[in-house]
Amino acid sequence: DAGVIQSPRHEVTEMGQEVTLRCKPISGHNSLFWYRQTMMRGLELLIYFNNNVPIDDSGMPEDRFSAKMPNASFSTLKIQPSEPRDSAVYFCASSLGTSIDYEQYFGPGTRLTVT
Amino acid sequence: GEDVEQSLFLSVREGDSSVINCTYTDSSSTYLYWYKQEPGAGLQLLTYIFSNMDMKQDQRLTVLLNKKDKHLSLRIADTQTGDSAIYFCAESAPGGYFGNEKLTFGTGTRLTIIP
Predict the structure, then answer these.
(1) Do B61 and B17 form a contact (C-beta atoms < 8 A)?
(2) Per-chain mean pLDDT for chain A
(3) Among residues A98, A103, A37, A49, which one has the least CA distance to residue B33?
(4) For a Cys-Cys bond, which of A27, A38, B104, B115 suits B2, CB 3.0-4.6 Å?
(5) Nearest CA of chain A to the CA of B106: how many Å?
(6) A residues 85..104 contacting B (CB < 8 A)
(7) B44 and A CB contact within 8 Å
(8) Which pLDDT tens digit goes with each residue over A20-70?
(9) Does B102 contact chain A (CB < 8 Å)?
């Protein structure tokens, strides 16, 4: 398996623009997680899905952020409108389940720069 | 809420032991993890320890857990240049709609190896 795939790897956009980050989990995994990594706050869980259903979105910073998982092999994280403080590396991870028995496998991340 | 803290930087001479420390606040943590992030890559699970254990050894890695002080450490024996990376401590605690575990990460410790 190719592992968790994220695209794009790098995104540079201007303030106010819409940004869409994409993730393809490992085939057969039924849980998907979105994380944001910044120097100041480290790695934060934004939202996670189980069987395509959002379970906990309490980490989503504000209404400008939204995430969807229309099917088991694809998820998006959208920021609209984007702001400079959204600049970070966004990681997607997937696992066989959300129980602690299941290891989360991380994608390579998308580095977002908002100018 | 949960909070996980780590020092940001550590420099160690090649061949010496590295000790990376972490403190956490959530006493209901069930598992504690160490993840490794190499440049430009996602996170990889290195090792984990169940909260009722106080030590776990895995080849060059030793994890020590002091549950009373909520202190976790990772010792890497005979540190090599390939150990250069950012190391994240994470805790899992019950949460979510189905009582699923979710991970809270520290800010990461950047380990630099001095030749």
Answers:
(1) no
(2) 91
(3) A103
(4) B104
(5) 6
(6) 91, 93, 98-100, 103-104
(7) yes
(8) 999 999 999 999 999 998 877 778 889 989 899 998 888 898 899 999 999
(9) yes
